[in-house]
Design a protein that fits this description.
Length: 297
């Protein structure tokens, strides 16, 4: 029943909505914000707790200001993601672009036929960034994702995310794919701020909190000696984002996996501190404690 509703009503409605100009979608986003923030209060307790723990020196007024700005940005990202369904290459290139300096540095590695790893966080518009990469660079992007439980919506999201040529692969298939294709050159797009199971994760202090981290980016960069970049993403103005590819490490085999993880996490932390309202605070990032420690209540 749900699949039929998705195919017949919801997905066609998303396509129709996506043809609206972005200013109109932002107007709708503003109305949606009023409902999400003031009426529904979606995960507001989680957001406020995350902000207070991450910025212990900020006043309650400052925390509430960031919280409100986050919800406005979050609603914009939802409607901008809808726009991604039918957005043109030209419009996306104007609204989510890479700095010229980062293009120069990044393309020096690509010119050597070198696979690279780019780590990003849920900063700015994290859906537009991988799509914009593929219209700015020739080397194919390999993205990794967790398949959604609903297959119909999962297919819809995959089609949207790969519309400009990116190849999106499920997490369980990603490493075997790399082994089979290690003689080919790719840009591996990996995420730095998911919440992994506590066992086997790398633990560190991140935003003043004990934090488990996926070691996948560091593990892959070190094993294959792929140069490691961080995609520093900021919001320039409403609906316009800039990405600066920062070289984290050009020779990962010289470092431990833990050291590499610390390197890209410091980049992510600086990105969040620069524009705290534009990170995904509604994510339950700190739901785990270190193994052998009492569980959180």
């Amino acid at each position: 029943m749900l699949n039929s509703v998705l195919r017949i009503l919801i997905i066609p409605f998303i396509y129709v909505l996506s043809y609206l100009p972005i200013p109109v979608l932002h107007f709708k986003s503003s109305g949606f914000f009023l409902f999400v923030y003031y009426v529904f209060g979606y995960r507001k307790k989680v957001v406020l707790e995350n902000l207070r723990n991450s910025f212990p020196h900020k006043t309650e007024a400052e925390i509430n200001s960031i919280c409100k700005a986050f919800y406005k940005h979050f609603c914009d990202v939802i409607f901008e993601t809808i726009k991604a369904t039918t957005i043109s290459k030209k419009e996306l290139a104007e609204r989510c672009y890479f700095t010229e300096n980062s293009k120069k540095i990044f393309n020096e590695f690509v010119a050597k036929k070198q696979s690279v790893v780019i780590v990003i966080g849920h900063c700015a518009n994290w859906e537009w960034i991988p799509m914009s990469y593929q219209i700015n660079f020739d080397q194919q992007l390999l993205g990794v994702y967790h398949p959604l439980s609903n297959k119909v919506f999962d297919e819809f999201m995959l089609k949207m995310r790969s519309k400009f040529g990116g190849n999106i692969i499920s997490m369980k298939d990603f490493y075997p794919f790399l082994i089979r294709n290690k003689t080919k050159n790719y840009t591996l797009g990996l995420n730095a701020d998911q919440s992994p199971p506590p066992e086997g994760a790398y633990w560190t202090t991140f935003l003043h909190q004990d934090t488990p981290v996926f070691n996948g980016p560091a593990k892959i960069a070190k094993k294959f000696n792929y140069p490691l970049f961080y995609g520093h993403a900021i919001r320039i103005k409403r609906g316009v984002y800039e990405v600066d590819l920062k070289l984290v490490c050009s020779n990962p085999k010289e470092f431990t996996e833990d050291q590499l993880s610390e390197m890209h996490l410091k980049c992510l932390e600086a990105n969040i501190i620069e524009q705290p309202q534009n990170w995904l605070w509604s994510h339950r990032r700190w739901k785990h404690t270190r193994p052998n420690e009492p569980n959180k209540k």
